[in-house]
Design goal:
With 297 residues, the chain is α+β, with helices and mostly antiparallel strands. It has helices spanning 2-6, 67-72, 76-86, 119-126, 131-150, 198-201, 209-224, 234-242, 256-265, 276-279, 283-288; strands spanning 12-14, 34-42, 46-53, 59-66, 97-102, 106-112, 153-154, 163-165, 171-173, 180-181. It has 2 domains: 14-112, Phosphorylase Kinase, domain 1; 119-288, Transferase(Phosphotransferase) domain 1 (Transferase(Phosphotransferase), domain 1, Orthogonal Bundle), CATH 1.10.510. Bound molecules: adenosine monophosphate. Adenosine monophosphate is lined by residues 40-43, 48, 61, 95, 111-114, 117-118, 164. One of its GO terms (molecular function) is ATP binding.
């Protein structure tokens, strides 16, 4: 594990502002600092548990990753980047990463707890969201992405599986595994096919406007319950993305204002996509999104 080999002496790290978890002093976290509660879920590389930091009583989610599995999948570098980026972001719609520590076999991430769980499960349950709900979520994510882009962080993997729901019903971007901190245009292929913009499918240079495309795909999926370029075969999804084969089915009924917004985001020429600050002024957002960013049902 890269973290372990490069920082043997200092076997933990947290950002200065971890005052929500501890009393504000610099500390070395160990498993003994936490009471471990129920499992919250299972990911590819380990488990996530509800936990309470003993001194402050602060409730967190503790993600436990097995070094052997990280090594096997060669994602140590990706994890390092995720930790580095996420620990420096402070936004109401971005899940906080308070710090990390590790032992011989595992890496532990101390995360903000999102009590209402995964967004994609909500979407599965509801099949699709109301326009009010979709617009509230899209506006809150646009604000979070404006914040990220202002810090030269491109997320690159916006999709329902990477979104959690906070205590008030607010969305939290939870996974920065594919994000990059960059001033340059990038050429790496990453993310899940359905949410990839043409320039990433075709492996040409891309920039922060990839996140506008993915947010457009997400907005479509919120309203229709399926992503816009879905197809049985990967090659068909690929072709539909590259051709921007965007169709709006007659059911469920979606307003023309919502379709207009989606059409302005899913534009092949990345320079012509609706900028995120303009998205916040779009009539569909203005008329439907809760200004608080919180959807209460
Ligand atoms: P992951 O390894 O990030 O895919 O997490 C596995 C599962 O644990 C997720 O699908 C969630 O159900 C749950 N989970 C992860 N992080 C949190 C969190 N911060 N708050 C609540 N549940 C979480």
């Amino acid at each position: 594990m890269a973290i372990a080999t490069e920082t043997q002496q200092q076997n933990q790290h947290q950002h200065k502002d971890s005052s929500e978890v501890s009393a504000g002093e610099q500390r070395r976290w160990t498993l003994n600092d936490f009471d471990i509660g129920k499992p919250l879920g299972r990911g590819k590389f380990g488990h996530v548990y509800l936990a309470r930091e003993k001194r402050s009583n602060h409730i967190v989610a503790l993600k436990v990753l097995f070094k052997s599995q990280l090594q096997q999948s060669q994602v140590e570098h990706q994890l390092r980047r995720e930790v580095e980026i996420q620990s420096h972001l402070r936004h109401p719609h971005i899940l906080r990463l308070y710090g990390y520590f590790y032992d011989q076999k595992r890496v532990y991430l101390i995360l903000e707890y999102a009590p209402k769980g995964e967004l994609y499960k909500e979407l599965q349950k509801c099949k699709y969201f109301s326009e009010r709900r979709a617009a509230t979520y899209v506006a809150s994510l646009a604000r979070a992405l404006i914040y990220c882009h202002g810090k030269h962080v491109i997320h690159r993997d916006i999709k329902p599986e990477n979104l959690l729901i906070g205590a008030q019903g607010e969305l939290k971007i939870a996974d920065f595994g594919w994000s990059v901190h960059t001033f340059n245009r990038r050429r790496t292929m990453c993310g899940t096919l359905d949410y990839l913009p043409p320039e990433m499918v075709e492996s040409v240079e891309h920039d922060a406007s990839v996140d506008i495309w993915s947010l457009g795909v997400l907005c479509y999926e919120f309203l229709y319950g399926v992503p816009p370029f879905e197809a049985k075969e990967h090659s068909d999804t690929y072709r539909r993305i590259v051709q921007v084969d965007l169709k709006f089915p007659p059911k469920p009924i979606v307003s023309s204002a919502a379709k207009d917004l989606i059409s302005q985001m899913l534009v092949k020429d990345s320079t012509q996509r609706l900028p995120l600050h303009k998205l916040l002024e779009h009539p569909w957002i203005v008329q439907n999104a809760e200004p608080s960013g919180v959807y209460r049902g």
